[in-house]
């Protein structure tokens, strides 16, 4: 496991971290005991960074992380996100009083005195531009309530705005073999400005595990069922914005990358790890086996220049035009 500097924060975080959406909720059945075991295995394997949000199970994933990291607060970094507990289209949701409430609630659930990385959770572009959100975050950082702040964005344009107009230390972006656009302009600029990149949805909501067929179904409480076409939130968060059946077909077309790399999931994560602008990749998990499989990606075979070029051409010629929503 390598440890990468997260922007200008002074935090060195594991190149493969873990996201906790699935253990909080919205991915079907969950098992808290297994989730806690999985977090322990991750920490024992060198993971020192976890990404969560106040809306993951209405704070449940934050509470699980508090339990799992008790007594290890100085060595385990936690990034959480805020804003989506309220109406993300209402300017009042971005007031100092409301943001402080979100912060205090997360601190309480995490049982910590400071948030390592406090991230804006996919706010609409106009709210990023038109509210006092970032001066408020600067103030919270000066007060020591947060160590640093970042922004989880849906589009490249939002990311470029954050780089140009704010003091954010990190950007969280959707990035995977089937969602390559950010590496063209956004990543080089972030690297130049010493802003960290956290790669989310790295397995395209499971498409890049190779487990699904066009006939696969999901439970009614799984976002891969109820947000399949963006009915509940941005369509890009589910299957990276691809229509499910098209996504299955495209994932099958890149199955060749798994040769000599264990399986498609490990190969897909390794592809992200090969990008030197990415600070850490944050795959989700629900059990010990998934954690172990995700972490095994760091030791898999790297990619040749020819393979990277082949995947880039594949994206632009066969995938890009099928992605829905702003990106």
TrEMBL record:
This is Aldo/keto reductase. Keywords: Oxidoreductase. Signal peptide: none annotated. Pfam families: Aldo_ket_red. Residues 17-314 form the NADP-dependent oxidoreductase domain. The keyword Oxidoreductase applies. Transmembrane segments: none annotated. GO terms for molecular function: oxidoreductase activity. It comes from the Bacteria. Gene3D superfamilies: NADP-dependent oxidoreductase domain. It comes from Jeotgalibaca porci. Coiled coil: none annotated. GO terms for cellular component: cytosol.
């Amino acid at each position: 496991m390598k440890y990468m500097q997260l922007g200008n924060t002074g935090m060195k975080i594991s190149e493969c971290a873990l996201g906790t959406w699935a253990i909080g909720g919205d991915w079907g059945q969950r098992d808290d005991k297994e989730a806690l075991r999985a977090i322990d295995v991750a920490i024992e394997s060198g993971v020192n960074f976890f990404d969560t949000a106040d809306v993951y199970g209405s704070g449940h994933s934050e509470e699980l992380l508090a339990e799992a990291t008790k007594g290890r607060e100085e060595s385990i970094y936690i990034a959480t996100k805020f804003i989506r507990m309220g109406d993300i289209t209402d300017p009042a949701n971005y007031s100092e009083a409301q943001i402080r409430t979100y912060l205090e609630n997360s601190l309480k659930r995490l049982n910590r005195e400071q948030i390592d990385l406090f991230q804006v959770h996919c706010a609409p572009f106009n709210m990023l531009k038109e509210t006092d959100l970032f001066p408020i975050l600067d103030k919270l950082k000066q007060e020591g309530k947060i160590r640093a702040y970042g922004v989880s964005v849906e589009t490249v344009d939002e990311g470029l705005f954050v780089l140009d107009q704010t003091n954010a230390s990190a950007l969280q972006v959707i990035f995977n073999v089937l969602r390559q656009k950010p590496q063209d302009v956004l990543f080089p600029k972030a690297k130049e400005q010493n802003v960290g990149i956290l790669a989310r949805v790295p397995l395209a909501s499971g498409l890049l595990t190779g487990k699904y067929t066009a006939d696969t179904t999901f439970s009614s409480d799984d976002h891969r069922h109820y947000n399949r076409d963006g009915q509940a939130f941005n369509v890009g968060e589910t299957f990276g914005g691809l229509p499910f059946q098209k996504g299955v077909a495209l994932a099958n077309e890149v199955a060749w990358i798994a040769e000599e790399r264990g399986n498609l999931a490990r190969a897909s994560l390794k592809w992200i790890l090969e990008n030197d602008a990415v600070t850490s990749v944050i795959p989700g998990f629900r059990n010990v086996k998934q954690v172990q499989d995700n972490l095994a990606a760091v030791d898999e075979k790297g990619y040749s220049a020819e393979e990277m070029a082949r995947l880039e051409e594949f994206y632009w010629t066969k995938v890009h035009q099928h992605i829905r929503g702003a990106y």
